[in-house]
Amino acid sequence: MNLPMTLTWLRIAAIPLLVIVFLFTPVEFARPAAAWIFGLASLTDFLDGYLARRWNQQSAFGAFLDPVADKLIVAVALVLLVFTDGDLPIVIATAVIIGREVFVSALREWMAGRGISAAVKVSSLGKLKTTAQMFAILFLLYHFPLFGLIDVHAIGYWLLMVAALLTFVSGAQYARAAVVAVKQAEAESQARGN
């Protein structure tokens, strides 16, 4: 196993640690510690892809496992936040983010089965959405004012709303790209049949 794959597995291994620390330690320790765990796990998300490309250690299994690890830790962190901070906007944002991830994953799988998966590649808006949601979750997990001055919880709250909006828009873009690709594939198939 190479280092990029090890980092991906470490991100998955961080999930139960995140849950245990968040739920079963005193709150004044739990929130900052959970934020650190999530932040370090998010950093491995950047590093594993970067190192895999730089060292030419990309693999089909790594390409599959990396987004799974991302989606798992994000979903678990959001559920923890709903459990503790779950006002209606956070619940709705969580439902939008998790729902979009399920939808896009299923759409990619379906498109791959039809041989037209290139139409639903990661977009720049999707990357922006991921960045916004990672910082939102990090700040919401941390919860307490930073240096006694900066209300990171409020910053995280509004970043989560932005992330949910970007999530919805990028999901719609994926759906539109899929419809166009399917229509184009069907037209090409009919043209070959004639």
Automatic annotation (TrEMBL):
Pathway annotation from the record: Phospholipid metabolism; phosphatidylglycerol biosynthesis; phosphatidylglycerol from CDP-diacylglycerol: step 1/2
Which GO CC annotations does the UniProt entry carry?
Answer: membrane
Q: Cite the EC number.
A: 2.7.8.5
Q: What does the record say about its membrane topology?
A: Multi-pass membrane protein
Query: Where is this protein primarily located?
Result: membrane
Superkingdom assignment: Bacteria
Keywords of this entry? Lipid biosynthesis, Lipid metabolism, Membrane, Phospholipid biosynthesis, Phospholipid metabolism, Transferase, Transmembrane, Transmembrane helix
Question: Which Pfam families is this protein grouped with?
Answer: CDP-OH_P_transf
- A GO MF label: CDP-diacylglycerol-glycerol-3-phosphate 3-phosphatidyltransferase activity
Q: Which GO terms describe its biological process?
A: glycerophospholipid biosynthetic process
Q: Which residues cross the membrane?
A: 7-27, 33-51, 63-84, 132-150, 156-175
Enzyme class at the top of the EC tree: transferase
| Catalyzed reaction equations | a CDP-1,2-diacyl-sn-glycerol + sn-glycerol 3-phosphate = a 1,2-diacyl-sn-glycero-3-phospho-(1'-sn-glycero-3'-phosphate) + CMP + H(+)
Record's signal peptide: none
Q: According to its UniProt record, where is this protein located? A: Membrane
NCBIfam families on file: pgsA
Q: Name the protein family.
A: Belongs to the CDP-alcohol phosphatidyltransferase class-I family.
Q: From the Swiss-Prot or TrEMBL record, give the protein name.
A: CDP-diacylglycerol--glycerol-3-phosphate 3-phosphatidyltransferase
